[in-house]
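Reopening this ticket.

The earlier resolution said the output was attached, but the attachment link was broken on my side. Pasting everything inline this time so it's all in one place.
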Amino acid sequence: MSERKLIILGTASQVPTRYRNHNGYFIRWDKEGFLFDPGEGTQRKMIYAGISSSNITKIFITHFHGDHCLGLPGIIQRISLDKVNHPVEIYYPASGQKYYENLKEACIFHGSSNIQEHPISIPGIIFKNDQITIETKNLEHTVDTWGFRIQENKGYTMLPKKLAAAGVKGEAVRKVKRLGKINIDNHTLYLEDVSVPKLGQSMAFVMDTRLCPAVYELAKKVDLMICESTYLSSEENEAEKYYHLTSSQAAGIAKTSNVKKLVLTHFSQRYSSNEEFVKEASIIHLNVIAVKDGDIVTFPERKRILY
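Inline output:
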């Protein structure tokens, strides 16, 4: 059964507050579990969210500032402690290899997990299978930082009435879906004859960056964009100085890139409320939320392609 949802484990930039944990974002994507930027305290927030270490299949680290990676040692050790029996892939900037090694070997523990390391040094596709493609692009921050995009391959919705009219059932349905065509009653039946295309879902993850071409490329026509919004526009000069985005800039990216739903996060500790972020961004992009720790965000519904 398909399940697509974003679970917010933390929304604080730089330092946690009473109400915001360090960064942490978990995406349930069917049988996959994607953990992004596990900051300090992520393991405990996972318990509250009902996420076990065995749910994790891939971990993504955008960069090695502490609020985006200090939870990694606990996650790696918990994976071993729980004897997770499937491989867990970790994607991170190759330039930060020594920091990765420090985090991985932060203290004494019995390592028994199957961790597969994927240091990133060039932009492009970092994972691809029959279901999804994951690509990365270099962002513009004070340290080497990477953004990510997940794109589901286009699928098809089978049409029961057309299948019945063509006399296709059982294993034949699975065969035509898998092969794209089958021979039946001395003629060739094509997948397009008994189905309609369905666009694959997509998402972008953009953290700690100034405006740059890569943010627009990652965000182009995605269903869901998770984007840093460290400052309000009143602090735009400060955002520029420290290589961050304002809520208005994040909304501008979403509007220009035709993003369906914009998720704002990574808020400076100076702001006690998220309301102004939504108010400011909504002027530019209508479908926007500023998340709080513990929020669950659903993906926009996939649409059939109609001719």
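Reporter confirms the inline version is readable. Residues 72-81 form the longest helix (10 residues). Residues 4-154+199-298 form a domain with the Metallo-beta-lactamase; Chain A fold (CATH 3.60.15.10).
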